[in-house]
Amino acid sequence: MKDKTVVLGVTGSIAAYKAADLCSKLVQQSVSVRVVMTDSASKLVTPATFLAISRNPVITTLWELPEWQPKHIALSDEADLLLIAPCTANFIGKLASGIADDALSTLAVSYSGPTIIAPAMNPKMWSHPAVKRNVETLLGQGVILVGPDRGRVACGEDGTGRMADVQDIIETCRKTLGQSPATQK
Ligand SMILES: Cc1cc2nc3c(=O)[nH]c(=O)nc-3n(C[C@H](O)[C@H](O)[C@H](O)COP(=O)(O)O)c2cc1C
Asked: How much distance in Å is there from the Cα of 116 to the middle of ligand 1?
């Protein structure tokens, strides 16, 4: 994965704190990590955490335009992989519908390379028919799913909804980048 550029999308799940560890482990493997956070994610973990760990600016809004080229478009061109971890039920729905109403969803819609999502949510949310349908849509679009795992979720319930282990997510990134034509870059 050395010298690859991974856009790490962080959405508003309580598992967002685990994305800091994921970011750190990717950086340790010489991956260039560019973090894009939703508003909800920024309420759970501060962008400064990801700035410090990734050593790159963190994008939290579409509307900071210091340069002529919007950052989300520049990043969608640079990325070898879009990894959304954790990925909320809401964001799964947005991805499945092509909604582009914030920096991360707009980047996702302007990006055509490999995409991995690591859903994290309450088990009742994960088993909701609308979420299941949206996940099927994403799988049909070629999006790669890692997890969610079974176990105890933050609200204390047992069931399927925990974000996959960081190591499993990294392994999925390694495999995906190994197969991707982007490795020829
Ligand atoms: C403390 C807290 C924890 C949350 N955890 C989750 C979660 O694990 N998964 C999820 O899908 N939504 C979770 N939510 C709800 C989302 O934050 C909410 O649906 C939000 O609109 C998601 O926005 P985003 O997808 O743009 O990040 C949580 C909300 C709060 C207040």
From this structure: 19
109: helix, strand or coil: helix
* CB of 120 shorter than 6 A to ligand 1: yes
Between the CA of 122 and the centroid of ligand 1 the distance, in Å, is 10
Q: Which one, of 20, 4, 7, 6, lies nearest residue 104 by Cα?
A: 7
Q: What pLDDT is recorded for position 72?
A: 67
CATH 3.40.50.1950 fits 5-184, yes or no: yes
Per-residue pLDDT reduced to its tens digit, 161-185: 999 999 999 999 999 999 765 443 3
Catalytic residue status for 87: no
Q: Supply the pLDDT for residue 185.
A: 38
Is residue 40 within 6 Å of ligand 1 at its C-beta?
yes
